Amino acid sequence: MVADSETNGKPERPTAPFQTESFRLTRPTIVGPDTPEPPFPVRASGPVQRGFGRGGKDLGCPTANLPDESLPQLQDITTTGVYYGFAQVSPPKDQESAFSAEDAHVLPMAMSIGWNPFYKNERLTAEVHLMHEFKSDFYGYNMKVIVLGYIRPQLDYTSREALIEDIETDKQVALRCLARPEYEKFASDTYFDL
Questions:
Q1: How far is CA 130 from the centre of its chain?
Q2: Does CATH place domain 33-188 in 2.40.30.30?
């Protein structure tokens, strides 16, 4: 299971370092090798769960949470932090008409796996930000993700504005990383419902 340490078989919330101005100024615009390397790609799926409601409302970055049962699928990822890859949301057969064709595409994503130290979460979450503006909610719809690389460690922040700035940088880094040919081809992976 994704964890930095464990107590009694349950992941323990680690202390996260604070994001600093020097960290922000030295962030690379692209990360990782030109081809995914083990443990990537990592695949996970599950019905989209309601989260804390902070992503869209407080941070301007809506997220789709994978259920706790999906976390073991991410066991090859052993470090909390921010990752990049592709994701697809599929509506149940009886609700397909409420979902646009664009909403059903395979989309680039950035995913946070961790405890969100700024908000002092007490449980591990996998929160996926799909880089697309959806026209409606999709709680309960199935989501598949292919995680292809690591962007940065989980950090704590002294302000909401610093967190938002890093999230925006994470999104741009993810898009640049996924534009590389060996990553881009995963958007057509047979894992997704194409």
A1: 8
A2: yes
Nearest 5°: phi and psi at 162? -65, -40
What Å distances lie between residue 167 and 67, 145, 174, 186, CA to CA? 22, 19, 10, 23
Q: What pLDDT sits at residue 84? A: 98
101 three-state secondary structure:
coil
Compute the half-sphere exposure of residue 167: CA atoms within 13 Å on the CB side of its CA.
25
Point out the catalytic residue in the list 127, 161, 168, 184.
Answer: 127
pLDDT at 138: 85
- pTM over 0.85? The answer is no
| 175: CB partners within 8 A, 6+ apart | 108, 131
Query: Known catalytic residue: 96?
Result: no
Q: Where are the domains of the chain?
A: 33-188
pLDDT along the chain (194 residues), means of 10: 49 54 75 96 92 53 85 86 95 79 92 73 81 86 96 84 87 97 97 82
Report the Cα–Cα distance between both ends of the chain, in Å, rounded: 29
For residue 153, what are the β-bridge partners?
Answer: 81
